[in-house]
Specification:
The protein has about 300 residues and is of the alpha+beta class. The chain is about 25% helix and about 20% strand. A seven-stranded antiparallel beta sheet has the order 2-11-7-13-5-4-3. β3 and β4 form a beta hairpin.
Length: about 300
């Protein structure tokens, strides 16, 4: 039986626990990623890193075209993997794009992304979750502060903090259109949240997360530890943000005219596969937490080219 190193949702009060896993798993066999030692150290200290110039201008345009195609394709789809904004029919998220789109499947295997994930996690990796987040102009709702790992641990059974999210900015992220905000250094601490998780909690939490979110005192403590700093992941389309599974992050609503869209791939170490959730609930569906036929990614070296929506 695997020990629960990060208990949560078991009491009535929040607790702040020290992280018990490394942030960067240094392994000489996976040192050929694109990051230099300064960048790796920055990620280890802050919990995230913005990387520019991974894609050419042509490739960025292909990414934008594919974003529009996915939005149009799912405009009238009402399956479980399509999450809509509370109070409207606007698309909020489309999950499992690495399985449902040949283009995004190949993108998730692109060597430029995978090699960085391997470099940080010190092992081969696989995709445990993928999604596109849409935040439309004027009515895109906020994503409240949270650590992804808290949910992935409690509701999905991710044993350890050995996963990294890769967010590719598909539309320019400005200060004013609800960019992702991150608390630097917060990944070094784990907020054990109060409450009890009901079955099928994901049906509500994907629209508005209310369980597994930090209390105000814990948030203030994390920001104080960061010297009062909150960073924003802004940049032009094509910028890539890598962030640790446990870093505290969120975003405000978008009341500007400019939409914000990102594609997320969650790379998990092949040595950190999901097990039984660390709670008394059934595992979340496959489109949220991949368990079936999990295999390590064999990185693709090809550039992104527009040809039948596939990387060739």
């Amino acid at each position: 039986m695997v020990a629960d190193l990060y208990p949560s949702r078991i009491g009535k009060e929040a607790k702040i626990l020290k992280r018990r896993d490394p942030v960067v798993h240094r392994n000489a066999a996976f040192n050929d990623g694109a990051l230099n030692e300064t960048q790796v150290d920055f990620f280890e200290e802050k919990g995230y890193l913005l990387v520019k110039d991974l894609f050419s201008e042509y490739e960025i345009q292909v990414l934008k075209d594919e974003l529009k195609r996915v939005m149009d394709e799912h405009d009238h789809v009402h399956g479980d993997e399509v999450i809509r904004e509370p109070g409207s029919d606007e698309i909020r998220s489309v999950f499992e794009v690495h399985k449902n789109s040949d283009f995004f499947k190949c993108l998730s295997q692109n060597e430029r992304l995978v090699s960085i994930a391997q470099q940080l996690l010190g092992s081969q990796v696989y995709i445990t979750q993928s999604r596109i987040n849409f935040k439309p102009g004027f009515k895109g709702k906020e994503f409240y502060w949270h650590s992804d790992f808290e949910t992935w641990h409690v509701e999905d059974g991710m044993p350890n903090m050995r996963a990294v999210s890769c967010s590719i900015i598909l539309t320019d992220n400005h200060e004013f259109n609800g960019p992702l905000m991150l608390i630097p250094g917060s990944h070094k601490w784990y907020v054990s949240c109060p409450g009890k998780t009901p079955d099928n909690n994901f049906k509500e939490s994907l629209k508005k997360q209310e369980l597994g979110v930090p209390d105000h005192d814990s948030l203030k403590w994390l920001v104080d530890e960061a010297g009062g700093q909150i960073d924003r992941a802004t940049g032009p389309a094509g910028t890539v943000l890598f962030f640790d599974c446990n870093v505290m992050h969120g975003s405000s609503g978008n009341i500007s005219p400019f939409p914000r869209s990102n594609v997320f791939f969650v790379f998990n170490s092949i040595e950190n596969k999901l097990i039984k959730p660390f709670s008394n609930i059934s595992p979340r569906p496959e489109f949220l937490a991949n368990r079936e036929s999990v295999r390590a990614i064999e990185p693709l070296k090809e550039n992104i080219k527009k040809s039948k929506q596939i990387l060739i």
